[in-house]
Amino acid sequence: MSKLGNIGARLHRGEISYDFIGHRKLWYGISILITITAIVGLAVRGLNMGIDFQGGAVFTTEKTSVSVSQAEEYAKEASGHDAVVQKLGNGTLRIQIAGMDTQQSDQIKTDLAKDFKVDPETIAADLVGPSWGDQIANKAWQGLAIFMVLVVIYLAIAFEWRMAIAALVALIHDITITVGIYALVGFEVTPGTVIGLLTILGYSLYDTVVVFDSLKEQTKDITKQNRWTYSDIANRSINSTLVRSINTTVVALLPVAGLLFIGGGFLGAGTLNDISLSLFVGLAAGAYSSIFIATPLVADLKEREPAMKALKKRVLAKRAQASVEEETADVRPVLDDEPDDDTAHAVVGPRTQPASRGRGRGRPSGKRR
Q1: Residue-wise pLDDT tens digits, 268-315
Q2: Which residues contact 105 (CB under 8 A, 6 or more apart)?
Q3: What is the pTM of this model?
Q4: How far apart are CA 180 and CA 140, in angstroms?
Q5: Could you tell me if 144 and 251 are in contact, meaning their C-beta atoms sit under 8 angstroms apart?
Q6: In terms of CB atoms within 10 Å, which of 32, 95, 270, 319 comes out highest?
Q7: Residues with Cβ < 8 Å from 287, sequence gap 6 or more?
C-alpha cells in the first residue's frame, strides 16, 4: 500500500506518467469492440424483462425439496408460459411467470400446489397487470432521458460544451455495456436494475468531473506558453487523478462484489442479482470510460480549434529546435590549429634546423664572418 501511495504521489507531481492520450486510438478500438459485442448480444438474446415491466405473477412457495428444474416444468405446464425459478436462501422457491393473464393466477396457484403436494394457501401470489408494467417501463426511460439532459446542461455550464459531449458519450458507453451484459448473462431486469443504472451513471460522472476539473484548472491561459499542448496537459490531468479514481472505484466495487458473488451466487439470494450486476458492471465501465474515453475525446475536440492547432504547431516547432540544438551541442568542434591525433606522432627522420643555426659550423673558431 505504501508503494502504491508513493506511485500516486509521483503521478500527482508529474514525476512519472503514462501516455493515455497518445494511445487513445487503442482505447477507442477496445471500447468499440466491447460496445459492438454488447449490441449484438442485446439484439440476439434480448433482455429478460421482469414482471414489473411485462406484467405477470410471482409465486413464492414454502421450503420444499422440489428442484429448480422440476419447478420450471410444473410452472410451464400450469401456465403455458416459460417461468423463471429461483431458489432462495431459506429453501423456498420464487416462481416468476411473465406475460400471463392475471385472471389465471388462481388456477395456476392451485395446479402448482397440487404438483408441489402442498396446501394452496401456503403459496403466496403477487400480481402485476400489463398496463402497470408499461407505465413502469415508460417512467424508467423518462427518468434516464431527464438525467442525461440535466448532465449535459450542467457540464456545459460548469465546464464547456465539448466536455459535456465527451461525458455524454462516456455515459452512453457505460449504459450500452451494462445493458449488453444483462442480455448476455440473462439476468432479470427489474426496477432495481434501473436504480442500479442511475447509480452507476452518478459514479461514472463523478470520476469524469474530477478529471475535467483538474483539466480546466491546468489549461488556464494555455495559449500564453509554448511548452505544452492541450493533449499534454490532458494526459497530466489523468495521471494526477489516476490513483484517486482507482481507489474510489475499488472501494465501491468491494461491497457490490459481495452482493453479487456471495449474496447472489453463494448464498442464493437471487433477488440481489438485478441491482448488484448493474452496479458491478457499471462501476467498472464508468471508471474505464472516465480515463480512456471522456478525457481523450475532449482532447480530440479541443485540438480542432484554431488556437489549439496554432499552439500545437508552436510547441512542436520549439521541441524540434531544442532537439537540434541538443544534438549540435553534443558534437565538439575541431579547431584548425589543433594537431590531428593521427598526424601528430607521424613525423620521422631528422628535423630541419633553421638556416641561422647552421652558420659558422665546420670552422675552428666557430665565429661568424
Answers
A1: 555 567 788 888 888 888 889 988 999 999 999 999 999 898 988 998
A2: 57, 125, 127
A3: 0.71
A4: 17
A5: no
A6: 95
A7: 204, 207, 245, 246, 248, 249
